[in-house]
Structures are given as C-alpha cells and as structure tokens.
Amino acid sequence: MQEPTPLYKQIADDLKAKIARGELNVGDQVGSHSELSKSYNVSVITVKKALSDLIAEGYLYGRVGKGTFVARKSAVVDLSKHKTVGLVLRDLKNPFFSLIAHGAAKAADEKGYNLLLASSVGRMDKEENQIAHFQKIGADALIIASMSRTYRASKEIRKLHDLGFPYIMVSYVHDEDIWYVGVDHKRGAYMATKHLIDLGYSYIGYIGGGVSNLLSDVRKSGYEQAMDDFEQSNRFVMQIDGDKDRYEAGYDAGRKFAKLAKRPDAVFVYSDIVALGFIRALNDANLSVPNDVAVVGYDDIEQAQYATSPLTTVHQPTEEIGRIALQTIIKRIENKPAAARTILNSMLVVRDSCGAKARRVKKAASEIKGLKASTKKAAERAAT
User: Fold this and answer.
1) Using CA of residue 87, residue 92, residue 94, residue 99, what is the dihedral sign?
2) CB of 188 closer than 8 Å to CB of 346
3) Strand order in the sheet with 294-299
4) 228-273 tens-digit pLDDT
5) Distance CA 71, CA 51 (A)
6) Dist. CA 379–CA 369, nearest whole Å
7) Across all residues in the chain, what is the average pLDDT?
8) What's the pLDDT tens digit per position in 301-357?
C-alpha cells in the first residue's frame, strides 16, 4: 500500500511473476474476482483492472461464466525489423470502417508495408490499450478510427500528437489540429437536404445523433444552412438516444415519429444505420417510405441498398480515405511534408427512399399537361 505504483499494476506484475516462475501454468485459473480481492486486500474493481490489462497483453484469457485463465503466450514479433502500420478500429464489423481498412490494406501492399488490425470492440480502455500495444511492439505508425462519440481527441491520441508519433484519424474528430482524413460533413448534409427541397417537399426534418454528438451537430448545421438558403420555414429536429445501439435508437425514433399528429413529409437522418432502424419502425407502423415519409441517410453503407426501400444517402469515399490515410502516414514516417487534414468530397446516391423517381415522373407529366394546354390555347387563338 505504501508503494507509489498503482495497486492494479502491482497485482498484474505479481501475477506475471507467478507465471514466469511456473507457479501458474497455461490453463490454470487465477482465481475469482472475490478470491483475488481478499488475497491482495484490494477492491474487486482494482482486481478487474489488473486482469483486464493482463488479458489485453495476452497473459490471461477470460471465459464467460467460467473465470480467468493463464494463456499460452504467443511469440513476440519484433516489428522494428518490418515496415508496419497499426490500424485501430472501433469495430471490425462496422461496414464503414471495414471499407476504410480495405483501402488502407491495398495501399500498404503497394508500398511494401504490413498492416496490422486491432478492434477496440466498442471499449475506450481497449482502444487505449491497443494504441499502447502497437507502440510497444514497434509499429511505425497508427491509423485510428476512434470509438469516442464525443468526437474529441482522447488523452492517448493527444499524447501521440504531442510526441510527434506518426498517426492519422479516419473517424471524424472535431479538434482541428489533430491529423485527419475524411469528408466535408456539412457539405454532404447540405447536399442531402437540398435534394429533398428540390424534390418539392415542404416540411423537412432532421434526425440527429443525440445530445453532445459533435458529428451530428456538424451535419445538422448543413441541414440548417440548406433550409436557410432556400427559405424553408417548416422545420423539425429529433434526437436519438445517443447511449443506445444506433439501429435500435433509430427504431425508437421511428416509433415516436410515427405517432406524431403532424409529421414532416421528408427527413434527413444523420447516419444510414439510424435511418435503417427508423425505416423499419415506420414500416412496422404501416407507414410507407417514401409515399408517407421520404428518407435520406448518410454514409452509404452496403446495407443501404438492400433496405425495404433502398436508401438514398450521402456516399463517403471510404476506400479512398483508407488509401490516402496510408499514403499520408508513410510520408510522416519518412519525414516528408504531409497534409495535416485532408478533406474529400462526398456525393449523393439517389435510390427509392426519397421518392425522386415518382416525383420526377409526376413533375414531367404536369409539365407535359401544361405544355398541351398552352399549345391548345395557342391553336385556338390562331384559329380566331
């Protein structure tokens, strides 16, 4: 208790020593949280922190409902002998970031670099451990897709920046000094909203990503700018529950939206995953997309085109983001001039959910009808 080293680290070091001395062997259970808590005379929280770090370092592994066991330690690869970039992703299952990884992997192969992937599986402490682990084993640089929904640089990322360690973010980060490759989110949101205005919708809403979500705020500013520029006074803003899974939160927002007495006839939803949950809820409430409500999303994930009403959305050039991130990071490794922030353009992908096809057909029919009427009047005047 008198040592300055944190208690959880002392426990971790003691367990490492026991493994090294052979007192704990591969497959041995290290004891339950409560047993270790009593043994070391510390809180269960301190024990959990120690075990979590040892699992992240590969000394231990956990089995749900069974306990924590000594792992077979893998041989350590000395990455200092290889040209290696570490890629820390929020979630390997996320379709947006998997495409970025694909672009980075292709560029790494072309440049003769190895690309190592690690997933933070939605945990901030895991993300920080992965960043530290890649540095420890000698990775030359890091590409990071942070899981932080505050969209601010974490303490670990800020430390990389201050040390001048080669890194680059491929998830949106609001801090303008942080190195980043991405798109102009405000412009993309403006484009999506303008598309709905151009189609003739008179009451257009915005479904945002929750309170304190800076990325959602940026996209909302694009929505508001378009509404201002085209003098649209009927506005509606709804925020999802930012603490929930985004599909589930989109579904909840759709259920609430369906019960409104006066609903917008079109909405711009800040993310495709939220939009897909939102559409599902509308369908379950017997509302049709786009006949009752037109919907536009953002990101152009693969599932968007397979929705019950294929989703009109703002496409981000994900593979291009990955490729440029890798090329930029190599310039930093080689001490060559490299852009601090690279902002790419997005593009609108028009599908069924916005009702564009039906509205354009209707508009064309109206124009033809008007043309016929004016032609008939002209003929009548000529005859008289």
Assistant:
1) positive
2) yes
3) 235-239, 204-208, 266-269, 294-299, 312-315, 347-349
4) 999 999 999 999 998 898 999 999 999 999 999 999 999 999 999 9
5) 12
6) 15
7) 88
8) 989 999 999 999 999 999 999 999 999 999 999 999 999 999 999 999 999 999 998
Alpha-carbon distance 185 to 63, whole Å?
41
Tell whether the model's pLDDT for residue 22 goes beyond 90: no
What domains, with CATH codes, occur in the chain?
7-70 (1.10.10.10), 79-182 (3.40.50.2300), 185-317+348-359 (3.40.50.2300)
The answer to whether 352 and 310 have CB atoms below 8 angstroms apart is yes
For residue 18, what are its two tokens? 């026991």
Half-sphere exposure of 325 (CA within 13 A, CB side): 35
- d(CA 196, CA 295) in angstroms, rounded, equals 9
Preceding amide of 317 cis, omega within 30: no
SS (H, E, C) 58-107: CCEEEECCCEEEECCCCCCCCHHHCCEEEEEECCCCCHHHHHHHHHHHHH
| 43 token code pair | 């809180």
Distance of CA 380 to the CA centre of its chain: 63
Asked if residue 247 lies in contact with residue 274, where contact means CB atoms within 8 angstroms, the answer is yes
- The number of C-alpha atoms within 13 Å of 6 and in the hemisphere containing its C-beta is 10
| H/E stretch holding 48 | helix 44-56
Q: Which amino acid is at 111?
A: K
